Amino acid sequence: MALNEVLVLFEEQERNRRWFEENHDKLVEAYNDRFIAIFEGVVVDSDEDIKRLVDRLEEKYPPERISIEYVSKEKLQLIL
To answer: ∠15-17-19 over CA atoms, to 5°?
Structure first.
């Protein structure tokens, strides 16, 4: 994969992440305690089980373009 392709994918992931954060409260109302799949700023699928979700997504979307987030009333933070 060329560097410019990697940068485009990174930017897309960042847009999806920002969209998730900006819409968190609305997402909690609809998807609390579920994993959601975001593609181009739209929730395209959700499930309580991440494996089932990923299995369905692999049939429909390029995995490198999908963002998967866990929706919870309590905002989770990962410290790396």
So the answer is: 70
User: 16: domain range?
Assistant: 3-71
Structural domain includes residue 80: no
| C-alpha to C-alpha distance for 78 and 80, rounded to whole angstroms | 6
pLDDT tens per residue across span 9-67: 889 999 999 999 999 999 999 999 999 999 989 999 999 999 999 999 998 999 888 99
Which has the closest alpha carbon to 46: 70, 64, 24?
A: 70
Number of domains in the chain: 1
Residue 37 lies inside a defined structural domain of this protein: yes
Q: Is residue 45 part of a domain?
A: yes
